[in-house]
Amino acid sequence: MADLEQISEMMQKGKAKEVKELCQEALDAGISAQTILDDALLAAMNIVGIKFKNNQVFVPEVLIAARAMNAGLEILKSELEAGESEVKGKVVLGTVKGDLHDIGKNLVKIMLEGKGLEVIDLGTDVSPEQYVEAAKTNNANIIAVSALLTTTMTQMENVVKAAEDAGIRDKITIMIGGAPVTQSFCDSIGADIYTPDASTAADKAMEVCL
Ligand code: B1M
Closest Cα to residue 155, out of 181, 184, 120? Predict the structure, then answer.
């Protein structure tokens, strides 16, 4: 019998194989992918985050929990994507230079693809020039930038500047997000759109591409 609590426990322990199997069992039992994401995977990462902050767990444990979360996301991916097939626009996505956090970015990717948007995923530790080059090469509508650290979110302003320097600022929408990012920060660096979560990011991206 699928058990969200068990998925959460396995994820906190970094048991990727078990998380995958249990996510599949939960889907087979009729639990929605969104419920599994919210009540098991994100809930578990929240607990890991609190323990990390309180020095109860350290980077290696957080890293294997993150791997287990990404393994679970792989299973939920097809269900979270709403099944759109026609490409409606192109988004260049990545986590900023100096930042290795990719779970939120991966979630944004899943939601964007679910809306029928093509995502060029540059991964993590992406320089401003890499975003701009990929946007030009792929004729993208949007550059979507994620950052999880207060020390790396400042890179977002460099992405805006790089787009200006390359002469594409008026043709590209720059979206930003990630735990430390706010609307006022977005306004202060001259980015176009801030959203607090992956699902809203996908909705806003659709508005840009329609
Ligand atoms: Co890091 N880490 N970490 N970490 N880590 C945080 C972010 C931290 C808050 C933990 C803490 O102290 N409480 C803290 C940052 C403090 C700060 O800057 N103020 C921190 C730190 C300090 C560090 C290191 C410096 C630790 C060290 O080495 N001493 C180090 C930095 C490494 C680096 O990047 N250079 C580090 C390393 C790591 C791991 C590698 C171990 C691992 C990342 C593994 C991976 O991603 N593959 C890790 C993790 C997992 C975390 C926590 C525990 C969880 C982050 C996460 O994935 N959350 C985190 C604490 C926490 O958040 N509670 C923490 C789940 C994810 C779904 O949420 O990414 O916020 P999030 O995405 C959300 C929204 O923000 C939004 O959508 C998602 C929800 O739908 N969103 C967007 C994200 N991007 C968006 C883009 C958009 C729109 C919305 O538009 C483009």
Answer: 181
- CA nearest ligand 1 atom 76, residue: 197
CA nearest neighbour of 198 among 139, 96, 115: 115
ipTM for the assembly: 0.99
Asked if residues 153 and 178 have their Cβ atoms less than 8 Å apart, the reply is yes
14: Cβ below 6 Å to ligand 1?
A: no
DSSP state of 153: T
**Per residue in 157-174, pLDDT tens?**
999 999 999 999 999 999
* Other CB atoms within 10 Å distance of the CB of residue 62: 17
* pTM of structure: 0.92
Q: Of 108, 118, 202, 200, nearest to 148 (Cα)?
A: 108
Residue 46: name the closest of 37, 209, 158, 93 by CA: 37
Tally of CA atoms within 13 A in the half-sphere of 70 that contains its CB:
13
The answer to whether the CB of 71 is under 6 A from ligand 1 is no
**Residue 160 CA to ligand 1 centre (angstroms):** 22
Hey, whose CA ends up nearest to atom 57 of ligand 1? Answer: 103
